């Protein structure tokens, strides 16, 4: 909240380690509070959703991007603008489904997992599941229902981290006037 | 800077923030002795002049202040009923300020949601498909600028017709909204924005900024004016209405002061 009002689109320098450690503390606390990993995953997703529905306004206010006309455009904006702005990385977009309603975000280097080793008793924990929630929440606010899930994770021995995004529908009821 | 008012309207058409920063021009203050040679009447919870137009005081004007103390509805700031007070010869001579009645909080709520509907009607009336809603509304004395975000929140600014740079002001207000309203974890979406969450204590971030800005730009005087136009807290009923939308010191105030 000590944010100065004149911050532009350029991101402010902050310690990424502090961020990584804070996220780590959050996840470990959730692991202590909940019995099984499924509940932790669900909780992370819920938290992410709550972040996403607010973050989208910050994103739109600073990035000056307009409404996207198709899902490909949305994918581009997410990868090249949003991830760049908030995590400082640019995931690549691959594996489009033939219908154009599904794609994968490949994160070469996920800043959330910098110091993390997943212990054996948490094999089904989706450590970065917060990101899926953020994506879902943010897109819901611009009238797009999507499903986001991790299909590969470097923490689980995969080569890269992959988030699979699936477009479900446009939420016509919430469309503001003059945006048809 | 000739910005008169700022409104923030949520997706559903509810007013969630409102700020005025102007002193009404057509005001007349005069000292009276008993008996009062004007006829006052109570109309719509306000004391209006019903008869006796003179010296810039017009029929329909409301009593705004008595002896320099603001009047809110039919009560003065210190809790006295206006008509009763003016009926008592012991209180004379008395100086009364008259002027055009200001909009009450409830009227603002109503007008904001009406504008929300007009905005939608605007886009439906369009002969072209996919037109936006009302972006600007022009009158002799002010221009209304409206910016709707992709998520459906409207930022409305009333400004002098010649005032330039409103588009960037609207973007700036959007940024401030996303910073100071949405990043406050205790703010719930779509709800009125208040920066005095705990019984009148300004949030720690608002105050230093406000003072610092005021000191830097020397706008203390303007700030005081805004304070005068603020409704007072005496009447409990008014207070609760007020709590709906008024917030006293916000980053936005700072922006407009700067």
Automatic annotation (TrEMBL), chain A:
InterPro entries: Bet3 (IPR016721), NO_sig/Golgi_transp_ligand-bd (IPR024096), TRAPP_component (IPR007194). GO terms for cellular component: cis-Golgi network membrane; cytosol; endoplasmic reticulum; Golgi membrane; TRAPP complex. The keyword Lipoprotein applies. It is found in: Endoplasmic reticulum; Golgi apparatus, cis-Golgi network. Keywords: Endoplasmic reticulum, ER-Golgi transport, Golgi apparatus, Lipoprotein, Palmitate, Transport. SUPFAM superfamilies: Ligand-binding domain in the NO signalling and Golgi transport. Its main location: endoplasmic reticulum. One of its GO terms (biological process) is intra-Golgi vesicle-mediated transport. May play a role in vesicular transport from endoplasmic reticulum to Golgi. Belongs to the TRAPP small subunits family. BET3 subfamily. Homodimer. Component of the multisubunit transport protein particle (TRAPP) complex, which includes at least TRAPPC2, TRAPPC2L, TRAPPC3, TRAPPC3L, TRAPPC4, TRAPPC5, TRAPPC8, TRAPPC9, TRAPPC10, TRAPPC11 and TRAPPC12. Heterodimer with TRAPPC6A. The heterodimer TRAPPC3-TRAPPC6A interacts with TRAPPC2L. Heterodimer with TRAPPC6b. The heterodimer TRAPPC6B-TRAPPC3 interacts with TRAPPC1 likely providing a core for TRAPP complex formation. PANTHER family: TRAFFICKING PROTEIN PARTICLE COMPLEX SUBUNIT 3. This is Trafficking protein particle complex subunit.
UniProtKB/TrEMBL annotation, chain B:
Signal peptide: none annotated. Pfam families: Sybindin (PF04099). InterPro entries: Longin-like_dom_sf (IPR011012), TRAPPC (IPR007233). It comes from the Eukaryota. GO terms for cellular component: dendrite; endoplasmic reticulum; Golgi stack; postsynaptic density membrane; presynaptic active zone; synaptic vesicle; TRAPP complex. The gene is TRAPPC4. The lineage of its organism: Eukaryota, Metazoa, Chordata, Craniata, Vertebrata. Keywords: Endoplasmic reticulum, ER-Golgi transport, Golgi apparatus, Transport. Part of the multisubunit transport protein particle (TRAPP) complex. This is Trafficking protein particle complex subunit. PANTHER family: TRAFFICKING PROTEIN PARTICLE COMPLEX SUBUNIT (PTHR23249), TRAFFICKING PROTEIN PARTICLE COMPLEX SUBUNIT 4 (PTHR23249:SF15). Belongs to the TRAPP small subunits family. TRAPPC4 subfamily. It comes from Equus asinus (Donkey).
């Amino acid at each position: 909240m000590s944010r100065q009002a004149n911050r532009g689109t350029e991101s402010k320098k902050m310690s990424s380690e502090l961020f990584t450690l804070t996220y780590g503390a959050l996840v470990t606390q959730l692991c202590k509070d909940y019995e099984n990993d499924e509940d932790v995953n669900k909780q992370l997703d819920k938290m992410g959703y709550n972040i996403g529905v607010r973050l989208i306004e910050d994103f739109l206010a600073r990035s000056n991007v307009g409404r996207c006309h198709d899902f490909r455009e949305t994918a581009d904006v997410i990868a090249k603008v949003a991830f760049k702005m908030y995590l400082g990385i640019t995931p690549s977009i691959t594996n489009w489904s033939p219908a154009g309603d599904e794609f994968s975000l490949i994160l070469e280097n996920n800043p959330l997992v910098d110091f993390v080793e997943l212990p054996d008793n948490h094999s089904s924990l989706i450590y970065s599941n917060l990101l899926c929630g953020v994506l879902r929440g943010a897109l819901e606010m611009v009238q797009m229902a999507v499903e986001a899930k991790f299909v590969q994770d470097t923490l689980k021995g995969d080569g890269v981290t992959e988030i699979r995004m699936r477009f479900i529908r446009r939420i016509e009821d919430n469309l503001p006037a003059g945006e048809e | 800077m000739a910005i008169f008012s700022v409104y923030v309207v949520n997706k559903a058409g509810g007013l969630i923030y409102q700020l005025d920063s102007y002193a009404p021009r057509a005001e007349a203050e005069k000292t009276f002795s008993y008996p009062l040679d004007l006829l006052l009447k109570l109309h719509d919870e306000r004391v209006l002049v019903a008869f006796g137009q003179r010296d810039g005081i017009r029929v329909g004007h409301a009593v705004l202040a008595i002896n320099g103390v603001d009047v809110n509805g039919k009560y003065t700031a210190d809790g006295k009923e206006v008509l009763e007070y003016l009926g008592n010869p012991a209180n004379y001579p008395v100086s009364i300020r008259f002027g055009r009645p200001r909009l009450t909080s409830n009227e603002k709520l109503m007008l904001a949601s009406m504008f929300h509907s007009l905005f939608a009607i605007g886009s439906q009336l369009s002969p072209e498909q996919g037109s936006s809603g009302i972006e600007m509304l022009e009158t002799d004395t002010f221009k209304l600028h409206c910016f709707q975000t992709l998520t459906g929140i409207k930022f409305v600014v009333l400004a002098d017709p010649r005032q330039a740079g409103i588009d960037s002001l609207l973007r700036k207000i959007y940024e401030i909204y996303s910073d100071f309203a949405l990043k406050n974890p205790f703010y719930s979406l779509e709800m009125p924005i208040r920066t005095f969450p705990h019984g009148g204590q300004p949030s720690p971030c608002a105050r230093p900024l406000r003072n610092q800005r005021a000191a830097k730009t020397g706008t203390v005087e303007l700030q005081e004016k805004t304070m005068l136009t603020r409704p007072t807290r005496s009447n409990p009923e008014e207070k609760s209405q007020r709590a709906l939308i008024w917030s006293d010191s916000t980053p936005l105030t700072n922006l407009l002061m700067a």
